Amino acid sequence: MNVREKLFSGLVIPAHPLALTAERKLDERRQHALTRYYLAAGAGGIAVGVHTTQFAIRDPNFSLLRPVLELASQEMHGHNVVKIAGVCGKPK
Prior knowledge:
Order of helices and strands: HEHEHE
Helix content: 25-40%
Strand order of the largest sheet: 1-2-3
Largest sheet: 3 strands, parallel
Number of helices: 3
Strand content: 5-15%
Radius of gyration: 14 Å
Number of strands: 3
Low-confidence stretches: none
Structural class: alpha/beta
């Protein structure tokens, strides 16, 4: 089944939350665990970096977008789910 067919089948695609430590740093262990949780729960896809509260992860001062996307991608590897990543801004 291709992505279009999956989308029209009525699957669930949760917006992936951001896991931070008490020091407001990326918590890689918990970020991995959140992705595994959604996969185990049967989500048909996962949307990473799309929630408006996460737009700050694109700020170069935080440098979080790439690591957050990479962590989710690592966990989704080999799973037949729809992968959505937040994109905004002007193309270069």
